[in-house]
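tool=predict chain=A
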Amino acid sequence: MEGGNQTPVAEFFFLGFSGVHKGQAFLFLLFLAIYLVTLVGNSVIFTLIQLDSRLHSPMYFFLSHLSSLDVCYSSVTVPKILVNFLRQRPTISYNQCMAQMFFLMTCAGSECALLAVMAYDRYAAICEPLRYAHLMSRRVRIPLATASWIWGLLDSAIHTTLATNLDFCGNNKIHHIFCDVPPLLKIACSDTYVNEMALHAASVFVGLSPFLLVVVSYIFILSAILRIHSNTGRRKAFSTCASHLIVVIIYFGMANLNYNRPSAGYSLGIDTLISTLYCIITPMLNPLIYSFRNKEVKGALWKVLGGQKNYYNSPNYQ
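tool=predict ok
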């Protein structure tokens, strides 16, 4: 391609909310509320885990990393959306777009890996209780958490590097609400074969592999729970992994809808809704799920609020 066809793109326009004209003030307040709940909820869980010695266990160590990831996840996309609502001009510079995509994919890949690590932690606790302290010792859990972050970082670096080599021929309208690989590939005018192959490979290694590890872990967990004779014992064992299982179902379900929808059924409105659920709503739900279903977290919160004298010995904590 010659001349004007190679015009570099200085900024991109998001078309995700292009059909919304009169409701932008409402959307601004809605996204702001969601972002604040996400920040406060995840920050509270992270802080409680650091302050309360009862939460200094491997499960809560990984949960603190999940809370940190969710704060990063939401902060990559929502502030820019809020700024664009205020300016009433949904744009992002080329460099900001590449940076947003890099950090978004880092968080996505890291969360997939971390959820798999948390599933292994639940497997070790329920299926190998006598060896749990050894299997999840400090020398094990710190490298596992670090590897989860590196897993997402390496995947993101590959996709971002490949994306910087794309030509857009002046086409700067992204059918999305933030920068991500699939919408950028749709508007690129250069060959995207390598990018698409990298995306398919990532779907298998970064998305599917951790999900299969989660499934295998829960097959063993379910088998171990069914061998417990008492109903109370089964219920107690399942309650230790119920919150994680709910988060896994929501996260991987939304990820599958976001990245593996058939193109024949594409709709900008549906695409915007699913992307919002995946990258904005899900990070808000995780702390709510863990706090509402977890007696230890509720107990730690009550302790911080000054009710520790009677909560841990109350029937509600038993």
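The two ends are 71 Å apart (CA to CA). The chain has one domain: 9-317.
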